């Protein structure tokens, strides 16, 4: 399935730059010591405007749940339907979720509860994106 090429903005650019370095980062609020993703201009917990920093995380997590897309209006994925969409929780903070189609996992055979790790795959010249694979 072709993956969309991200268009970073001022808030998300550090995240995509880290992906290009094979690193997974999330925002960390120094005021309330809370991790957050997706990136925001302010802390979603305490509202701090100037206490966010980027923190590298392990890139490990587990599959919380999943659903299958059978009939999407999103053109790039139409020919690959049906596809899995797994909800991945981050090891450092299970409140942080990422989505993945779990390449290589047959449709509707997603192992809920399985451990996963991030890897980075190219989607265009000079741009990597984060993707997830089942481990162990």
Overall description:
This protein has 136 residues and is mostly beta strands. The protein has one domain (13-134). 9% of the residues lie in helices and 42% in strands. It has two helices and eight strands. The chain has helices at 13-20, 75-78; strands at 25-29, 34-36, 52-56, 60-69, 83-90, 93-100, 115-124, 127-134. The strands form two sheets. A five-stranded antiparallel β-sheet has the order 6-5-4-7-8, covered by helices on one side. A three-stranded antiparallel β-sheet has the order 2-1-3. The two termini are 25 Å apart. The relative contact order is 0.21. The model has no long low-confidence stretch (mean pLDDT 93).
Strand residue percentage? 35-45%
**Strand order, largest beta sheet:** 6-5-4-7-8
Structural category is mainly beta
H/E series, N to C? HEEEEHEEEE
Report helical residue fraction.
Answer: under 10%
Entry keywords:
136 residues, mainly beta
Quick gist of this model?
With 136 residues, the protein is mainly beta. It is built from two helices and eight strands; from the N terminus they run αββββαββββ.
Secondary-structure blueprint:
Blueprint: H1 13-20, E1 25-29, E2 34-36, E3 52-56, E4 60-69, H2 75-78, E5 83-90, E6 93-100, E7 115-124, E8 127-134
Antiparallel strand pairs: 1-2, 1-3, 4-5, 4-7, 5-6, 7-8
